[in-house]
Amino acid sequence: MALLSMRDIDKSFFGKMANEHVNLEVGYNEIHALLGENGAGKTTLMNILYGIYTRDSGTIEMEGKPITFSSPKDAIKSHIGMVHQHFTLVPTLTVSENITLGLKSPGHPFPNRKVLDEQIASLSCRYGLDVDPKAIVGQLSVGEQQRVEIIKLLYRDAKLLILDEPTAVLTPQETESFFTVLRRLREDGHSVIIITHHIPEVLSITDSITVLQNGRNAGTVQTKETNAEELSRLMIGRKLQGSKREMISKQNRGNGLVLSGVFLSKAKLGPLSLQVPPGSILGIAGVDGNGQKELAEIIVGIRMHQGGTVSLCGECLDHLSVEQRKRKGIGYISDDRHKDGLILDMDLQDNMLLKLFGEEGIVTHGFVNRLLLRKRTEQAVAEHAIKTSSLECPLRYLSGGNQQKLILAREMAGNPSLVVACQPTRGLDIGSSETVHNMLLRLRKEGCSILLVSSDLDEIVLLSDEIAVMHGGKIMDCLPNDRIDLTKIGLLMAGKGMDA
Ligand SMILES: Nc1ncnc2c1ncn2[C@@H]1O[C@H](COP(=O)(O)OP(=O)(O)OP(=O)(O)O)[C@@H](O)[C@H]1O
């Protein structure tokens, strides 16, 4: 008998099927991947299991007993827990306060703070989830916050843990220790469902895999009996072409983006000097949190630098607002789409307007040309294969990958002269990542300067003409792509090897 069995699950939104006759079985002590392209229906299926959505039809059984949850509270009572893509912690509270939030109900004795901290420390130690119970959550790294979310579920006695794209926010090092935690959970009698579209990860950590395609089952396989090719075929139903960076002749197209001696106080960043000529990609490699975000925000005008200058095509940008810089043709793909990429309660068209307002004909005498805006949004949806029920759908209801695609479509539209792309393929499936890579290469060919910040070294090496490595707010070294030494880059990322 399986631990969990979901059969013939149907779910539609506004008449559009998100899940159609979907089946899923998860065994005891099993790490199971739910794999599929962006918008394949993975999160919807798990939201049904967790009591967030009500299914239209189908049955769910846990240990052979039929279950129906009307809220996550019911799911937790049945020992099912879920960590969402975007965490639900309160940043101003401590780790232990977050873990016990909402637990003061009869039947669940509330321990005093000392006992509580001990219980949390013991859970942390048992599963290798290293966090300080007294730490303020807002001051923790994303990886640490994820550990808090997992401890929160374990504290509530979850036996089946659902993790929605858990590694999308982790650095490669954090991912390794996260896998160790998953193995310990399995050894200790837990089962885990990981929602993902990252095939190498699926192959290295899971026991079995269910693949969804367009809301339907595309296959269920045992991990040791499959390979990357089969999974990619099941997932996207076509063979990938790959991306190739062609050599571009060095025409004299001006300076592109130039930063000279830019810095922020308290040794947070710089002084930095760099140049991204038109028709080239400068990749910034580094572990998240080493000044990459500050650098990107200075260039697009969100953050003011305290010294040095930023110029684009020979024009100083220092005193220009974000809006003025957008009008100069700067596109910005932020690494945090919910915080500064989108307005979730607005629909696709109004989110497109956030950048397109500067384009000719879109806003005249203060009035928005809705017809033209609609046309441009339709084009973006078609070109990027964005899955949505309508153009009027609030962004909140698009899948994570489709939200990301809308940002990319918007920021790369209208012949930009500079694109600052931070983690542009985070949360995207392999097919969509390839599309984004090809789009960046196309913009490069058209003469755009591109600053690419990514924690995915393969992506940096694939796309960049030059690679700068950042550590501690400084550029450790800048290497042309034809002289790449990955070991050296790794050392520089860790802050070593200046004299290597
Ligand atoms: N509350 C909702 N209202 C309207 N449509 C929705 C809602 N939730 C999901 N959908 C739609 O259902 C489809 C499946 O979305 P889902 O989030 O389940 O995909 P996913 O496989 O998790 O994708 P991703 O990998 O991009 O997160 C998408 O077309 C999405 O727009």
TrEMBL record:
Highest taxon of source: Bacteria
PROSITE patterns to which the protein is assigned, alphabetical: ABC_TRANSPORTER_1, ABC_TRANSPORTER_2
One GO CC term, this protein: plasma membrane
Subcellular location: Cell membrane
Record's keyword annotation contains Transmembrane helix: no
ABC transporter domain boundaries: 4-239, 252-497
Species this protein is from: Sphaerochaeta pleomorpha (strain ATCC BAA-1885 / DSM 22778 / Grapes)
Alphabetical list of CDD domains matching this protein: ABC_Carb_Monos_I (cd03216), ABC_Carb_Monos_II (cd03215)
KW Hydrolase (keyword) present: no
GO MF annotation, one: ATP hydrolysis activity
Entry-linked Pfam families: ABC_tran (PF00005)
Protein name per the record: ATPase component of uncharacterized ABC-type transporter
Topological relation to the membrane, as annotated: Peripheral membrane protein
Gene3D superfamilies (alphabetical): P-loop containing nucleotide triphosphate hydrolases
Protein keywords: ATP-binding, Cell membrane, Membrane, Nucleotide-binding, Repeat, Sugar transport, Translocase, Transport
PANTHER family xref list: CARBOHYDRATE TRANSPORT ATP-BINDING PROTEIN MG119-RELATED (PTHR43790), GUANOSINE IMPORT ATP-BINDING PROTEIN NUPO (PTHR43790:SF4)
InterPro entries: AAA+_ATPase, ABC_carbohydrate_import_ATPase, ABC_transporter-like_ATP-bd, ABC_transporter-like_CS, P-loop_NTPase
